[in-house]
User: Fold these one by one.
Assistant:
Number 1:
Amino acid sequence: MRNQIRNYIRAGYPGIYLVSCEETRIEAEMKSIAQSLDYHLFGWSITEGLVDALDGSAHGGQDAVELMMKVDDLPENSIVLLKDFHQFLEDGNPVLVRKVKESLRAGKTKGRALVIVGCRSALPRELEREFVIVEFALPDKEQLGIILDNIAASAQLPKPENDERDQLLGAACGLTSIEAENAFALSVVESHKLDPGIVAREKANEVKKSGLLEVCSLEASLDNIGGLECLKAWLLQRREAFGKEAEAYGLPSPKGLLIVGIPGTGKSLTAKATANVFNKPLLKLDAGRLFAGLVGQSENNLRSVISTVEAIAPCVLWIDEIEKGFNGARSSGASDGGTASRVLGTFLTWLQDRQAPVFAVATANDVTQLPPELLRKGRFDELFFVDLPNQQEREAIWRIQVVKFGRQPEKFDTIQLARATEGLTGSEIEQLFIDALHEAFSRRTEPTDLSIAMLLNDLVPLSKLMGEQIEALRKWSRGRTRPATQAQHPEHTGRKILT
């Protein structure tokens, strides 16, 4: 990042816009760049005005227009770091916009560069082509390691080494330098040592602030899922594909999978379990929250999500019910000026071309709402279809649910229960057993096969309520998807079974 900015200044770029909330880190980087190029460095904020970074002398110019006049008097080969200046440009003040253009034109001949730093990109259309925009990346492991060593030294703790160091840096990836420093310091205060668990907890809190991403726990595993053996085998085959051995072998990192199917059949649970299989952090993206009312904010939200996810990588990114986030992309030209279409396009490009080891798991219930370009090969490694559980899967689901609620499977006839609950989804079976527990608790006894069967008489399953939609989904999946469960009869799947 430092070399990229240095090259822009050396090439005579008069306007650079750094998108980042890390002012302190950027100030340090710009001081290093100015020193290496033998440039003068000035900083500006509305509270302090124009200040010489070398001797701290103030040059006035707290007003934005007055500042631009001061800039014209600065010596050649100068860098002016402007903090929060984008807030003045947003209003489109014609006098300020014109003065910025003139300063940029003069700066190109005199080696002066205006460097705006802001947490989001917000330039008026008149200046969009005048500035080069640089997404200032979050600190990498090497930079976080320096922070970690400084905290260890200040707390008089031994410098973490090997696995402990990797765990701490992995837990801090995705944080800003200040956030990482605070998390390391808090772990020392709380546990009198550098604790990766505390750092990871603080990262989850920081990531959640935006409302776009959430760091989820890794409690779910494949053992919590009844059936879906084909999907499980596919995941297990790729569990080692993120390591250095796979890279040396020439194996590219898996991109991800899209799971479509009937609601309540374990799609979201599989997404959660995927992170456990790969032993990687799990981040959940709320695609619907990407879209905001301000012009350009939706695109900024997506860029922020991508930078955070790639900083935390290797990780698993879970997009639940993806069709609800992007179902307006087709008609967005008439409804929102094309914002949804642009956001989807950027997201699809990232899915296709990303280099960071991010495994994306998307789930969808209604495939008719999915943009066709999302289903194309290359976005995801595989497209799986999850149908209603068969007899063997329902038996496994019953055993899992009985154990989950502290009962012994041997006390229930799970084979008969599986037969009686044909057409039920996994979530419906879980809720049925919960209802049986409530009914039994009211009588201060234990649920039995008979009490469960009596409750089943009053249950109207989703397979009846949405029979037409489910059959349409099955018809669509034939020949287009890979079944998550091996079909018992060839006619149940569009895939040809070789014998």
Number 2:
Amino acid sequence: MSMYQLGIVKRNIVRADRAAVEKLSRFGVATIHEAMGRVGLMKNYMKPVYTGAHVCGTAVTVLLQPGDNWMMHVAAEQLQAGDVVVAACTSDNEDGFFGDLLATSFRARGALGLIIDGGVRDVKDLAEMDFPVFSRAINAKGTIKATLGSVNIPVVCAGAVVNPGDVVIADADGVVVVPAAMAQKVADAAEAREANETEKRAKLAAGVLGLDMYNMREPLAKAGLKYID
């Protein structure tokens, strides 16, 4: 039995603050994940379908049925500029739910990319379009259009809870979800973390050791580390 409500399209969703989304777009997934307290990360099987893909935007969520991409077409109508489609499936499925035609449609509506816990195809075309897609699998196998899912309901995508309007950031390191209500706070924390890392990077580049920069020598000695000449 699905824990989801099926056959629903929520039209009016509250998207995260635009300025907060813009600020989050300046930082990498690892930095944001750390700044948020190490939560919100999708499972690491989610991979970019081409090198260099990265995206940051507000989630329009889709719940798919296995081997059926009908709801992707329903979702297209709900897209606005700056959105990222986040698609989950009612059960594990790696069929090719999405390709270059849907990417063309999504882009025409203002979508910035797709995160899907399923399969996609037409990878060469997606790369040429520079339409960022992060997926569970690449699969040429097509889908049908027969069973209702839902659009803009809370979903669990690759282990992460995603509510419509949340901020989704994806890059070569993975995919992270920032709840809409926390977007500004997390963006500010990410900025502070980045500034701190810039300072550390300069020290490390100058030859300072992490052993000294992080004051590790004393705890290492306490733990029993011995140097033998």
Number 3:
Amino acid sequence: MTESKRRVALVTGGMGGLGEAICFKLAALGDIVVTTYSPSNSRAQDWLQARKAEGFHFHAYACDVTNIDSCHECISHIVRDVGPVDVLVNNAGITRDMTFKKMDKVNWDAVMHANLDSCFNMAKQVCDGMTERGWGRIINISSVNGQKGAFGQTNYSAAKAGMHGFTKALALEVARKGVTVNTISPGYIGTKMVTAIPKEVLDTKIIPQIPMGRLGKPEEVAGLVAYLSSEEAAFLTGANIAINGGQHMH
């Protein structure tokens, strides 16, 4: 990666709380930032216009990350319009929480497709280009619950744990090609999804489990993404970095 070339960084699900913070951080580093959004998201253009008013010129493409054909089409458009992807952040994901007793195949599959299949679907489109150019960063956003499990999240915990298995195996395959593959496992971060949890539950059940006594900030996770995408992180691959305020150590 030469100094003169601006990197193209793709963040899936970049319009949500954590994804948005990652987009802001990578843009601040000088990257050309591209995000995907769900084809069902009717407010994507509003988001783009609001960010533009704040001085951020992001590129955004509709993409169903659960569908490999949609991912192929999306990446083809990005390469044509912006350039080949240098940094891929697999951030898109969903939850469908319920006890295993109540869980049906539909809710199991939905979470597997959105959280785990999406990593394969997106990395498949960009990995060969990265290895051919001799530089690339693939960063998979997992979860503390993929490490320690969580009540009512057999689907989500399995998918998020699977992401790191994918990270380790792919990291081995591309290690000599200048491409690193890493996992980040955030704990409870103060995004809309987490702050929507009833305050009583947050204060009595979640915050007491976190030694630091607070939720994490999206910007703190974004800072870790920035490091993993940097030149300085070239020797770091196949790792799962926990960023959870001490909630789970391993």
Number 4:
Amino acid sequence: MYSRRKFIKTSALGASIATFASVALGKALARSDGPQKSNFPIVISTWNFGVAANKEAWKILSKGGRALDAVEAGVKIPEADLHNHSVGRAGYPDRDGHVTLDACIMDEAGNCGSVAGMEHIAHPISVARLVMEKTPHVMLVGDGATQFAVENGFKKEKLLTAESEKAWKQWLKKSVYKPVINSENKLYQPGSLPGGKDNHDTIGMLAIDAKGNISGACTTSGMAWKMHGRVGDSPIIGAGLYVDNEVGGATSTGVGEEVIRNVGSFLVVELMRQGYSPEDACKEAVHRIIKKKPETAKNIQVGFLAINKKGEYGAYAIQTEFTFAVCNDQTQDLLIDGKSFY
């Protein structure tokens, strides 16, 4: 017979279990949702010149500024660097002597803008942002992009510097187009012209601001000595750059054709959505490129850089010597060697 005493004991035991479970659940929620040490703000970017770019972005992030403003300001540093022959105004020209620039930008709401094959404008990233904010389009190209920039107050100028023109004229003597791993600037004989392996190609930048919002930017002058009209991955949303504020962001560098074929940055973000760490997502994207074209992959470089919503970051490349820069409240000039397949 179920007595009143047994009922009271059972009820007391049940209450105790319920209380314990409630406390345990409360502790679990505190661990997962409660106050934690923030990884924000943070900014990461590709290659050695990312260090200086990150520092500029950090000026905005450290004051509580928006990630979108930070990435635009950051990548403008290599765009303006006259010693950088693979990004911005001092970029090496195509085989016809035209300096054509590509860039894209994307914010936390999925808004994006880009320009491709644009001439005569020194800061394509800022034009890309205006495309995002002032037009119903995502991408403007060629003369249309230049026209739009001028109509919005950008100065039209000659971008082919004396140093870049010298390199182009020397290349014309043999006109051999063969991109060399880790530097389009090694398309000439090493040591014969200014530049070297520290001057790579694209700068891709990803930032998370103090509010936890993610934005990204990507800008380049593209492959040196390319065919006139060639466009790589850098201005293509989903290839050279992709941001999903619920998951994270990714950017790429290297031979853009292979990134486009695999929609690389979008792939990396989707892999992170499935639970991959940033490094593992980049690694899987690289492996897919290698699997599809193993012989081609032996002689090219492609690298991915990613950050997730927690502020965790990682990178992976086909070849060694891919570096990326990190800047947060602990370090301003951290440069990391990315892992690689070869």
